[in-house]
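User: Some background: our group keeps a shared notebook of sequences we're curious about, and every so often someone picks one and asks for a predicted structure to add to the entry. Today it's my turn. The entry only has the sequence so far, pasted here. Could you supply the structure so I can complete it?
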Amino acid sequence: MSGDQIALWVVLVIFVGTSCAYSWYWYIRSVIFYLKNGFDFRVDFGPSMFWSEFHDDLDQAKPREKFLIGWPVVVAVSSALLMALLRL
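Assistant: Of course. Here's the predicted structure to add to the notebook entry:
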């Protein structure tokens, strides 16, 4: 690899690594919060998550959707991207 490719790889690893750590952090915090709360999904916790690029209230994920679908998908995709980049 040339110097430019190595620099690009380092920037990508840093970007994907920080987004992976961010998603793991919020997913673990959500698990701890809902365990302590008795899995009462009437209380929203963590950053907002939207199902589309338009930030309407209709497209905002509900707390149960974030916990059961949103965060696990984000964690799986960011972890897979990071592992794929580290294998290069």
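Suggested note for the entry: The chain has a mean pLDDT of 92. Residues 3-86 form one domain.
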